[in-house]
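Q: I'm writing up a methods section and want to include an example of the input and output format. Could you take the sequence below and give the corresponding predicted structure tokens, formatted cleanly so I can copy it straight into the document?
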Amino acid sequence: MTSDAIFDLLALNDGRSLVMAGQYRLRAAGGSAEVEITDIATGERSVVYAHDGRDLHITVPPGTYRMCLRSSATKVALTRLGLLERIGAYAAKTVSLIQSGRLTNVVVARLNRRAEGGITGMAVGNVAGQSQLPPRPAPDLAPPDRALASAAVSIVIPTKIRAEMLRACVDSLALNRTVAAEIIIVDNGADGDAMIALLTELSVRPDVRLIRDDGDFNFSRLCNAGAALARHPLLLFLNDDIEALDGDWLAALRSYAARSDVGAVGARLLYADRTLQHAGVASNLVPGPGHPWRGASPEVWQGHPFLAQPGEVDAVTGACLMIRKTIFDAVGGFDEEAFAVTLNDVDLCLRVREQGLKIIYAPQATLLHKEGQSRRRDDDPAERQRRQAELRAYVSRHPEAARTSVFYPSILRRDTDQALPV
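A: Here is the clean output for your methods example:
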């Protein structure tokens, strides 16, 4: 590539790859352009946005990249910069950096101010882009199956460390008075005195069964082990850091899971401060699936069309996921090999969707999720390597879902969970 190489990305938007290194200018004319950049060697992805009349400069480490374009522009050009142009781009602080080994956008200058404005707007109920969003249509679903609409539920709870959280979780399940349920606790090698005492206490309850798995933490394996013991036609996978807020949530989830065209259903989950944690998973966020509108205040999630109303989503979190046992068994359960810790829930939901079934977000079921308190941190090198391997496996297995969504609006950015407008 010469120093002034120009590529027409509209013409190249066919999966071909480019050998790149250095600084480039991305320019869109007659509209805006979203360019997804994939490092062929690592499978890692980034996404950048160019707008009519505003150049975007990016720095790219040496490598081979694939470009995927979503554009309303009449022309999208990528030009390698000469020395004087590079100096000017840095001086103007218009550079986004694609880092080797971790494809993330370093958001600078103008974009920083934009992001801060979006988060502030979310806090006061003026979510970025909300006024431009179309009303969310009610899901068009089959009527509930009569037998499943009154069926009992097997609740599978993997656990290990935090006795106080497991107790709060199990105690809150007593708020449910309308749905018959058994609780299957999968003990991943608990050794603390408080946890052992609690598990011993729970083991004598007629509605509780315990199994022990002393292997390394593998969320998929633990859930599959619990599901194998289930006696009821509906499965609910529940994290031990979930706490119910009322007694109606389980019936609300069942009312959707009982429909023949629904594959799985998930709840609205809140952090302890009542800000939003989960309202459905967008499969096409970059670098990987995420929870859009995460952190939205109650003023937002109580009235926002995508947060306050039920609807179809790409996936729901395994922290609270209901599915018919027949469907779970038919697709082979959670993938213990490719997705031991992360993305197992998204992979499961996408495989269910491949069967022609819908994944539903049901805010009528709203619970607390003390996310991450019951799991180890994954910030050490081995865990980072594992996380990246699972992300690569996800993009490889689900390339279409990694770029498109059944619900996340195309007018919103894919490189953030803050639902900022493009």
